Predict the 3D structure of the following.
Amino acid sequence: MLTDQPRIAVVICSLGRPEIVRSLLPHLLAQTSPPREIVFAVTGPADLPADIDWAGFPVPVRVITSPKGLCVQRNRGLDAAVDENDIIVFFDDDFVPSRFALERIARAFALFPKVSGLTGRVLADGVCSGGIEAEAAARMVADWDADQTDPGADPKILASGLVGLYGCNMAFRTSAIGGLRFDERLPLYSWLEDVDFASRVPGEKVRSDALVGVHCGVKAGRERNGRLLGYSQIANPYYLFRKGSVPLAFALRLGLRNTAANHLRAARPEDWIDRRGRMRGNWAAITDILRGRSAPERVLNQVAPPQAG
């Protein structure tokens, strides 16, 4: 067991999903090793449940108001927490962690001194489907926790040498973060902001069974503007390659995979994905690259035509 518990801050960025935030709170309170503080980086009071008295919450909570955008919200959360904590844990508002997560994250950083950042084992990911209901995610995680006959066992590294980490569940030593921040040139979806940030943090990045959970991948109906994400699917990997935070092979593989998926599925798209919009966004980004004017911010110029039906 650890004799000196590290100070852990959980940073959660959210926008317009107060009931999703509410669903996460019991899982933070159930942690076998509670965080020193929870930091919410939101755009205003409407992003959080209105009936919760944060001053009287069982775990210290700080609410930071930020301009809209995942990168800027993550940065405001970091600014608030990095100097007063030893470990920063980022959870998406729809990520359901094991109740052993924070305890085992601390243990992993103690066991692996060369590791500066880690992501975990995702039991199920609603991003790959129409989404997972919060109740179903909670059951999956509870079943996992109940099966752990020795939750105090040493965490293991499942994969090492990662280019980046998965932003819905990632943790960093603050000593490694220093003055680094998320790249605010990546607007809106901030596609690949997690990969970019993690790749720039010095030290080894790994996937570990220290952190286990379910990512609900909450969606509010059908994607209404796939062109925006489609543009970022091409423009952002290209930008990150040019700035040196991802290898060329990584950027090419990601861009080609997403473009191929959008074209192959455009005729019979999933109910929750605007494949035709993404396809148009892909080609707009490719055109900008060929014309030498590609930049992640140009996604703000993309306007999707209204969908029929």
